[in-house]
């Protein structure tokens, strides 16, 4: 099991959750704009880092 790919998947999922939380909060106007901005920025950072890790990790079959 490739640890970098697993960690990239976890970061990507956390990023998506952060972006969805920020979007729902923005639509419902349930939080302050600073709080929603922090969730949105962290979501973008986690998502882009996770996608980058998944893309840069090559699949090598070991025999």
From TrEMBL:
* Segments crossing the lipid bilayer: 7-24, 36-54
Which keywords has UniProt assigned to this entry? Membrane, Transmembrane, Transmembrane helix
**Domain of life of the source:** Bacteria
Q: What is this protein called?
A: Uncharacterized protein
The organism encoding this protein is Arcticibacter tournemirensis
